[in-house]
């Protein structure tokens, strides 16, 4: 398959690839492929869904590196001294940042309380209200898009700056990614449009009424941005000779801490990053719609793929490995 054939394949696809907007591939520090569909240009951004979580993990690592956070085993409640837990709630006091990063934090709900959290005035406090429970900390994996919102509050309270400002200064700017702006609306109608809109977006990040960005979704990036983030992870936290995140944290972030079940493709899980293969050194930040930052250390390749929301598309790793990389001879 040639580059032209790949473009036509996606352009004419009626299947899982028809929602792809951009693909960017970097190898050995150089961009070797960049292509767009559906009227997008390389500078455009798209909502990358839960890839946002992978970015939040990097921000937590930077905050640890800079001494704002002592480490992943620091208690969550250390950062919310003014928060009063619900009556009888004790488990919350034992929850650590590690529990948030590995999705082993316990929550007092069966399904995520989207309406309760996303109509509140402070999404971080609303998420804290659901943290804990009578069962205690069991170590069970519980995927929680809303619970990760607590990380935004931790970073803001630890650093004394807005999470988006911390990200622009310490991560995006260092990678040559354009300044990311706050979206600045949180109405029900706007949230729906933000998730479903298929047009190009600017570099922005969804935020709650307190101007705290959403930690589990809501970040808009281009595929070029995503590939740059991937290259930084590939290089142990360095980009173009500059250390962005410590190699120690990158190693821990991409290490296999949990074995996931069939619902998550039997992948392993690190700190909000996946390991798709047990026998290969590949990591990925994955979101709905097939949005992905793919990192292959064996081939020294990073790939960014973004796309519009399309139900039932989650893992784009197989597409990258079986179609994109072979087409490039990689």
Question: Could you characterize the architecture of this molecule?
Answer:
By secondary structure, the protein is an alpha+beta fold. The chain has two domains: 3-49 and 163-327, DD-peptidase/beta-lactamase superfamily (Beta-lactamase); 76-155, no CATH class. 31% of the residues lie in helices and 16% in strands. The chain has helices at 3-11, 51-65, 97-101, 114-118, 123-128, 149-159, 163-172, 188-196, 223-234, 247-254, 317-327; strands spanning 20-27, 30-36, 46-47, 181-182, 204-205, 220-221, 238-239, 242-243, 258-259, 268-269, 274-275, 282-287, 291-296, 301-307. The strands form five sheets. The protein has a five-stranded antiparallel sheet with strand order 2-1-14-13-12. Strand 13 and strand 14 (301-307) form a beta hairpin. Helix 2 (51-65) runs parallel beside helix 6 (149-159). The radius of gyration is 19 Å and the shape is globular.
Compact summary:
With 330 residues, the chain is of the alpha+beta class. It has helices at 3-11, 51-65, 97-101, 114-118, 123-128, 149-159, 163-172, 188-196, 223-234, 247-254, 317-327; strands at residues 20-27, 30-36, 46-47, 181-182, 204-205, 220-221, 238-239, 242-243, 258-259, 268-269, 274-275, 282-287, 291-296, 301-307.
């Amino acid at each position: 398959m040639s580059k032209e054939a790949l473009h036509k394949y996606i352009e004419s696809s009626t299947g899982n690839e028809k929602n792809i907007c951009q693909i960017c591939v970097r190898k050995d520090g150089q961009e070797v492929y960049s292509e767009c569909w559906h009227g997008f240009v390389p500078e455009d951004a798209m909502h990358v869904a839960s890839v946002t979580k992978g970015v939040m993990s990097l921000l937590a690592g930077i905050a640890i590196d800079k001494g704002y956070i002592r480490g992943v085993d620091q208690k969550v409640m250390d950062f919310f001294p003014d928060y009063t837990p619900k009556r009888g709630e004790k488990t919350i006091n034992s929850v650590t940042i590690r529990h948030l990063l590995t999705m082993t934090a316990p929550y007092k709900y069966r399904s995520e309380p989207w309406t309760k959290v996303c109509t509140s005035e402070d999404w971080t406090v609303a998420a804290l209200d659901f943290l804990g429970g009578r069962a205690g900390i069991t170590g069970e994996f519980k995927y929680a898009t809303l619970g990760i919102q607590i990380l935004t509050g931790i970073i803001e309270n630890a650093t004394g700056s807005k999470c988006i400002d911390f990200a622009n200064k310490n991560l995006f700017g260092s990678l040559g990614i354009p300044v990311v702006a706050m979206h600045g609306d949180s109405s029900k109608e706007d949230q729906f449009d933000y998730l479903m809109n298929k047009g190009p977006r600017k570099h922005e990040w969804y935020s709650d009424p307190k101007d705290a960005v959403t930690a589990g979704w809501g970040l808009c990036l281009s595929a070029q941005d995503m590939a740059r983030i991937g290259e930084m992870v590939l290089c142990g936290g360095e980009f173009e000779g500059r250390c962005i995140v410590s190699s120690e944290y990158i190693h821990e972030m991409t290490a296999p801490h949990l074995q996931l079940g069939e619902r998550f493709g039997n992948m392993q899980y690190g700190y909000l990053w996946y390991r798709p293969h047990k026998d290969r050194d590949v990591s990925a930040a994955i979101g709905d719609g097939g949005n992905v930052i793919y990192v292959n250390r064996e081939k020294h390749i990073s790939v960014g793929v973004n796309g519009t929301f399309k139900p039932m598309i989650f893992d784009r790793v197989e597409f990258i490995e079986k179609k994109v990389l072979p087409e490039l001879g990689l």
